[in-house]
Amino acid sequence: MNKTIIVSNRLPLQIKIDNNQLQVKPSVGGLATGLKTIHQEGNSLWIGWSGLTEEELNSDLSKQVKALIKKEKCDTVSLTQNDLENFYYGFSNRTLWPLFHYFMEYTEFENTYWDSYKAVNQKFADAVLEHVEDGDTVWVHDYQLLLVPKLIKDKKPNTTVGFFLHIPYPSYEIFRTFPWREELLHGILGADLIGFHTYDYQRHFLSSVKRILRLDVNFNEITYDDRVVKVDSFPMGIDYNKFHQSALKQKKEEKSELQKRLDDHIQSSKDARMILSIDRMDYTKGIPNRIRAFEYFLNKYPEYKEKVRLIMLAVPSRSNVPQYQLLKRETDELVGRVNGQFSTVSWTPIWYFYRSMPFENLIDLYTSSHIAMITPVRDGMNLVAKEYVATRTEQDGVLILSEMAGASKEMNEAMLINPNNFEQIADTLKQALEMPLKEQRSRMEILQKRLKRYTVEKWAEEFMKSLFATKNLGAVIIAK
Ligand code: ADP
Ligand code: G6P
């Protein structure tokens, strides 16, 4: 039976060794949470990095690790400490991530990083080539592996290869600054189908292909090396039922400690309201902007003091990269400043958690919050916005969402804001707090309908359908 090989830098599970004991956690981030559902259901093998370095993998626990990974239908690519520094923290997260999110000032162009990126992409391609059989499909994911499609296609031209980018694709004016731009584009064009979250990212990619490689682009098809390469947008959905059903179920079960504390606040006064944000601690997520806008709101509308609380969950991420350390410091300071300025004996305006939380607690946070305030300055999609909507089983609640998140393109019924406009955010927050239930429900109903229809399963299905159609189209053209 033919299989699909999913390839991404991170596997859906992350392993750590602590005190000679294995610790296993689910990976955080849109890619892992989204694809997990597809992987669990289909005949697939997932190839990626386990979170352990090659040095750690060679320990006494290696047998246990391998068994664990195999049980999850995965295989691991082992990265050395040097790969981690130069490929992962280096080229992936100090070059591509900032550049593709329009943070030019954070972008480092380093030859050592680039050499490591090429070598590690080759490692991933080799791991795929070891497993791929005739008739299999390979689906490569995200910015860490942009060269892998070509490396596979060069060795196995008949293999069907799809590629999906989970982050924004920047405009030509940004992308053209990249020193290895031709190699990167050729790498991606090894795929038969290239997918993006939004039409804008797709448009930017096609523009780079036309202007840098001077290739002919016919609407959204590129003829390349006697093949047809198709480029299209597929906005990623969520496992709607999982979130909705968990929210329903948890309401009937015994309350967690966190839920009890959240209830205490809600019951403290009839006007008490909770505003939620959940992100990885990343400078693209607009965390300082959000705190500043909240501070601005409390100054502009003091009648809300002692009534509203911002609950901010920030999950540690890429903490070896200096910009992430600076962001953590800035966030700590801002939270301290706002809490110091406004707190009373019975009220703290911001509850800030810098940690990962179990799934059940995420659901508690989603279901207890009257408002979700999601303000990235740039975000490929943002699944948290969709998860919040899916858990609103009474169809109440308001989603405030940045225009800079890919998700805003499909969520017009949210209250869309510019994350740099504090005046607008403060006024929108007030409007959201005062929105009549009827309006909340009518907005939520439309949002939920759309998310229920275009789930993550549907997203994968549409991508695969289009991938096979493109491959067959290519075969017809070549035969002519
Ligand atoms: P990104 O991919 O940039 O991290 P997204 O909003 O698209 O941003 O995806 C974040 C994903 O990580 C969501 O699916 C969310 O549920 C998950 N997540 C966020 N915080 C946690 C956490 N503390 N524990 C587990 N999963 C989390
Ligand atoms: C985003 C990226 C993913 C990445 C995730 C977590 O969702 O698109 O590719 O896995 O962030 O980041 P990390 O660096 O921890 O893998």
Number of helical elements:
18
List the ligand species.
Answer: adenosine-5'-diphosphate, 6-O-phosphono-alpha-D-glucopyranose
Assembly category: single chain
Shape: globular
Low-confidence stretches: none
Keywords: Coiled coil, Glycosyltransferase, Transferase
Subunit structure: Homotetramer.
Family: Belongs to the glycosyltransferase 20 family. In the C-terminal section; belongs to the trehalose phosphatase family.
Catalytic activity: D-glucose 6-phosphate + UDP-alpha-D-glucose = alpha,alpha-trehalose 6-phosphate + UDP + H(+)
Kindly list the characteristics that best describe this protein:
six-stranded parallel β-sheet; 480 residues; binds 6-O-phosphono-alpha-D-glucopyranose; single chain; binds adenosine-5'-diphosphate; alpha/beta
Quick structural summary:
By secondary structure, the protein is α/β, with parallel strands linked by helices. It contains 18 helices and 17 strands. The chain is globular and about 65 Å long.
Q: Could you explain the architecture of this structure?
A:
This protein has 480 residues and is of the alpha/beta class. Helices cover 49% and strands 18% of the residues. The protein contains 18 helices and 17 strands. It has helices at 30-41, 54-57, 62-71, 81-100, 111-131, 148-155, 172-175, 181-188, 199-213, 240-252, 257-268, 287-300, 322-342, 359-368, 383-390, 422-433, 437-453, 456-479; strands at residues 4-10, 13-18, 21-26, 44-49, 74-76, 137-141, 160-164, 193-196, 217-218, 221-224, 227-233, 273-280, 308-315, 350-354, 371-374, 398-402, 415-417. A nine-stranded mixed sheet has the order 5-4-1-6-7-8-11-10-9, with helices on both faces. Strands 14-13-12-15-16-17 form a six-stranded parallel sheet, sandwiched between helices. Strand 15, helix 15 (383-390) and strand 16 form a beta-alpha-beta unit. The longest helix is centred in the last third of the chain and has 24 residues, at 456-479. The two termini are 30 Å apart. Adenosine-5'-diphosphate (ADP) binds next to helix 1, strand 12 and helix 15.
